[in-house]
Specification:
The chain is 9% helix and 36% strand. It is mainly beta. It has one domain: Electron Transport, Fmn-binding Protein, Chain A (Pnp Oxidase, Chain A, Roll), CATH 2.30.110. The strands form three sheets. Strands 2-1-5-8-9-4-3 form a seven-stranded antiparallel β-sheet, with helices on one face. A two-stranded antiparallel sheet has the order 6-7. It has a two-stranded antiparallel sheet with strand order 10-11. A hairpin with a 4-residue loop joins strand 3 (43-47) and strand 4 (52-58). It is globular and about 60 Å long.
Length: 203
């Protein structure tokens, strides 16, 4: 069976082929020093020495609040979460008229070591990032940041920082649908994990 080609005028849909993704919660500081929190999945490491990561945030047609805060403060925290707080992670993407959604959704701040912006205690780990440069790429802004500190919950990781899937299930997002009164999100259950031992090819 051959491949089906996506039409040129529909190539924007090809992004969906990159699913599933692993969303995380980004915390930033608002102008009044309250904590903003929002879920994103367009982030990845780009260097190990020194440790650096990228994050792409929407700039057009409307600039995201997290991006505004990062442009102003030059920092953010990437909070790695598991499926136990999936509902709150989705709710953190919504806009709220009153108060602060960090407070409304009952997140608790975790002290950061090197930057002002806190992480969240609900994370299994959080990474403190300081912005190196920003570049406009299409409808997003690409943020390249240096990882200046990182913390993790030892209950969920081995000594070599391997995630213990017996104790935590990473949040792996497959797809979403918009319905009349909200959103439906589909997540992957990692209850079954397969390990493959692949020997090197002899030369």
């Amino acid at each position: 069976m051959g491949f089906k080609k996506i039409k040129n005028d529909e190539l924007h849909k090809s992004i969906t082929l990159l699913q599933p993704s692993m969303p995380f919660l980004v915390t930033t500081l608002n102008e009044n020093n309250s904590i903003n929190i929002a879920p994103f999945s367009w982030g990845t490491p780009v260097s190990q020495y020194p440790p650096m990561m990228s994050l792409a945030l929407l700039n057009k047609p409307k600039k995201q609040d997290s991006l505004k805060n990062i442009e102003r403060m030059g920092e953010f925290v990437c909070n790695l979460i598991d499926i136990s707080i999936a509902e709150r992670a989705i709710a953190a993407s919504y806009e709220y008229r009153e108060n602060n959604k960090f407070v409304i959704l009952n997140f608790a701040p975790a002290h950061s070591e090197k930057i002002k912006t806190p992480g969240i205690t609900e994370a299994r780990a959080f990474i403190e990032c300081r912005t190196k440069f920003l570049k406009e790429v299409g409808d997003h802004i690409l943020i390249i940041s240096e990882i200046v500190a990182a913390s993790f919950n030892p209950d969920y990781y081995s000594g070599s920082l391997l995630m213990d899937l017996r104790k935590t299930k990473p949040l792996i997002h497959l797809e979403q649908y918009v319905v009349k009164d909200g959103q439906v999100h589909v997540f992957v259950d990692t209850s079954c994990c397969k390990a493959l031992n692949i020997p090197y090819v002899e030369r």
